[in-house]
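Look over this one:
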Amino acid sequence: MFSKVNFAIEDISIKNDAVCFTDVPLNMMDGHVKNYGKFAIGFKKEFVKNSGGNPVLYFVDHTTINGLRGIISSNLKTILKFTVSNYKILKEDGSEYNSNELKDNLMQFLSHCKEIGDLGPPSDGSERVDAYFVEREWRIVRYNRHKDLEMLTTIDEQHYLKTTVDDIRTIIVPNKDIARMVIEYLQESGTKNIPIIIEYDELKYL
């Protein structure tokens, strides 16, 4: 299911739809499950890539500190302001550069950007710890081309990325009882190639 992702730098902000994944190694999942639980579906990476997936582009803060920390996001902010200020000019002068295409491309790019926050102290000087970077997040951002390629299904105005069991490499479950239920469900539904089913506590041995 596509959910909302946000990106903002000062007065520039966007909202878009994306499906989010983690690329955390299976034997390093303890921190991740504290927030997301012990049930997970591991998709084949070629499926994610072929669906337009890409690793998130992490930034160290969105505010420049001492002239260097956060400088990449500062550079991006300058580019964004230039693009926004010239958007109307591109639209009105009949340029070969399609202004709507530029806007869409910019939105898709920003939908892959995320503040990292956990390399060194947070920008607000507090003792909080931001663990976004260790999630090793990937995103499939929704494009019009997904619809053109019939890769989407829509139920009650909610968009879903079409998948099959063949797109799944691993299913992680909390215990043996749920593992048995998942296997029985897949068998009863006629699944020929059942993905690898792993109990969460077994991940430490991988």
Notes: The chain has one domain: 3-205. The mean pLDDT is 81.
